[in-house]
Write a structure and sequence with these properties.
The chain folds into two domains: 183 residues, Rossmann fold; 190 residues, Rossmann fold (3-Layer(aba) Sandwich). It has 400 residues and is an alpha/beta fold. 28% of the residues lie in helices and 24% in strands. The protein is globular and about 60 Å long. The protein contains eleven helices and 20 strands.
Length: 400
């Protein structure tokens, strides 16, 4: 069984500092995915076990500057709230979950301590806790950013499920921070224990990466794409997006066009190139992706070209009024960390239907086997196959 997909968003999370009732954001009772896993448990118990008791650990942590990197749903930040940790997260949804979980636990929600991966990191860190991300590139970039804040006495602890920690993961800690070893596995989770070495000179982060698009994909042919660490397919154009680019609609002047789940922004940038005069909005839940989209757009259309760039949960009602959008372009993900789920796609589709004006269109590219046409017909009452190949389909649904 996948430890990330066991039942119960409402399952209590028992820690050495008390029991917490944690939730993901947005909570979806159909999915029943936990907001924590065995790796979060293992790290917290290790912190407490260093002093043989939770009370002793409190003495060890009190007054120390704690940073939590990559806390997926706020489990670590909420458990350690009495010590006022700084959370550093790439995920808008993860930050929203942290706010909710801190409030559930009766802890103060200090926005100044909820940083994104694009914010200036703390100047000094005494305890660095790392929930290993799915993206090795994001881990590399963030370790580079945080290394100057560490000192020889900094405690560095990483955690993840055994399927998430590889030799390459350990090599990054070793190369950027210092000597690294791993713990024994407990309930399929493992710890990374690293000792900072101030003599190391790992150099600057290699991110962001840039590459030129191929010559046969429409208006964006040969254009430059900018990818910050952690952005989907940061080294090359993925085949689904390539297929989508070859079949994009041309926006009309004055249209409000949303690149939903924008990633590096290549789809929205192509739409802007094809339809001068359209207003582009780039939306993603990843702060790294939004930064990538902005740089991709500015590189190709100039620093003053009008566009909006939002880290948000799909087409959030507080950001997109009903009938305020003419065209939505979408390549939805079908994973949430290690769990396979259609919840994100469904939220994107329902948000698009609400935000689109009558006659407005949602264009979607997806793997053929995912059956998005069924969901779109159920939601919009119509769905047209625009193009297809053995692996992908491009679908069009019209708001009636």
């Amino acid at each position: 069984m996948n430890p990330d997909s066991t039942t119960a968003a409402a399952t209590p999370f028992t820690t050495p500092w008390g029991t917490l009732d944690l939730t993901r954001f947005p909570a979806d009772p159909r999915e029943r995915l936990r907001a924590w896993d065995a790796s979060d448990e293992y790290l917290l118990r290790h912190l407490a076990g260093e002093a043989d008791s939770a009370a002793g650990a409190a003495t060890e942590l009190a007054g120390r500057r704690i940073a939590v990197l990559g806390d997926r749903w706020g489990a670590l930040t909420t458990a350690l709230a009495p010590y006022e940790p700084v959370q550093i997260s790439d995920s808008h949804l993860g930050r929203q979950a942290t706010r909710e979980n801190l409030a559930r636990a009766g802890a103060a929600v200090d926005e100044a301590r909820l940083l994104t991966t694009r914010d200036e990191p703390p100047a000094r860190i005494d305890v660095l806790l790392v929930r290993v991300p799915k993206s090795l590139a994001l881990l590399e970039d963030q370790l580079h950013r945080l290394a100057p804040a560490l000192h020889p006495g900094t405690v560095v602890l990483g955690t993840g499920m055994v399927t998430e920690i590889h030799t390459s993961t350990l090599e990054l800690f070793e190369r950027i921070l210092g000597p690294t070893r791993t713990s024994l596995a407990v309930r399929k989770a493992r710890l990374i224990l690293c000792t900072p070495d101030p003599a190391l000179r790992p150099g600057p982060s290699p991110w962001p990466h840039r590459y030129a698009l191929p010559p046969d994909i429409g208006p964006a042919s040969g254009r430059t794409v900018v990818n910050h660490a952690g952005t989907f397919c940061a080294e090359r154009l993925d085949i689904g997006t390539r297929f989508f680019l070859a079949h994009l609609p041309t926006p009309a002047p004055g249209d409000r066009v949303v690149d939903l789940g924008c990633g590096n922004g290549v789809v929205g940038t192509a739409a802007a190139l094809a339809g001068p005069g359209a207003g582009l909005v780039f939306v993603d839940e990843s702060h790294q992706a939004v930064a990538s989209a902005e740089e991709t757009f500015r590189t190709n259309l100039g620093p003053d070209a009008p566009a909006e760039f939002l880290a948000a949960d799909a087409l959030a009602p507080e950001l997109f009024a009903p009938g305020s959008v003419d065209l939505v372009l979408n390549n939805p993900p079908f994973h949430s960390h290690q769990a396979t789920t259609d919840a994100t796609a469904w939220r994107m589709f329902t948000g698009a239907r609400r935000a689109l004006r009558p006659g407005g269109e949602l264009w979607v590219v997806g793997n053929r086997h995912l059956g998005y046409h069924v969901k779109l017909r159920r939601l919009f009452g119509n769905c047209q196959l625009v193009a297809g190949n053995p692996k992908f389909v491009v679908l069009r649904a019209v708001r009636r």
